[in-house]
Amino acid sequence: MLICDRPRLYDVDLIGLAALVLIGLTMWYGAIKPLEGRIQEFRKCQEGKIEEKKQSLRELESLKQLNNQRQILAEELSQARDVLRENTGIPNILRTIESICGNWNLQIDQVSPGPARQTPHFNVQEMELELTGQFPDLIGFVEALQQKAPYVCVAHSSVEKVMQKENEQENGASCAIQLTFDIFSP
Question: How many CB atoms sit inside 10 A of residue 149's CB?
Fold first, then answer.
């Protein structure tokens, strides 16, 4: 059937055009719209993966820095001297303490060993020492002990002024000193 004379348009053409529009709409809503939704999901997933990658790179950089610090500490540890290996035993420590006391004008009144303790990495022997002397000499004694016997640690100290006789006044104030040492050994 002829709809109009010019240009000639037939029903078949309209039906074909309608069919093409229908196929196009079906493709649009049936295939392209769902694909757009999936594309949005993939983009969100991609953004999440990119953020995870950035986080992983930050963690990797942090781990590299920690590894560098660990290597530096390992080098320092390998270069550090093993102080505990220098411990030659209690008799030598007592001789060292006696020598240092003599150098700093301190008189040893009493030496008494304390209890020994064991830890997983080293042994600790406690020792109590009673001295008489002046306070500045005590400071020099402790500094010298730290230099000559670094494996000896002053755990407790007590200093009391001692009453002096009149003829001792010119030498300075005398102190009763009580020290408790921890002696570390392998």
Answer: 20
Listed residue (94, 89, 88) closest to 111, CA to CA: 94
Displacement of CA 29 from its chain's centroid (Å): 60
The C-alpha atoms of residue 35 and residue 41 are separated, in whole angstroms, by: 10
Sign of the Cα pseudo-torsion (150, 152, 155, 159, in order): negative
Please indicate, yes or no, whether the overall pTM of this predicted structure exceeds 0.85: no
pLDDT, residue 74, reads 86
- Residues with Cβ within 8 Å of residue 106, at least 6 apart in sequence: 131, 132, 133, 137, 138, 141, 177
Distance CA 50, CA 39 (A): 16
- CA–CA separation, 102 vs 118, rounded Å? 32
- Cβ atoms of 115 and 134 within 8 Å: the answer is no
CA–CA gap between residue 148 and residue 81 (Å, rounded)? 14
3-state secondary structure of 176: strand
Average pLDDT over residues 49-72: 94
Dmax (CA) for the chain in angstroms is 147
DSSP-based three-state secondary structure for 84: helix
Phi, psi of 9 (to 5 degrees): -130, 125
What are the tens digits of pLDDT across the range 104-139? Answer: 888 989 888 888 888 887 788 888 999 998 888 989
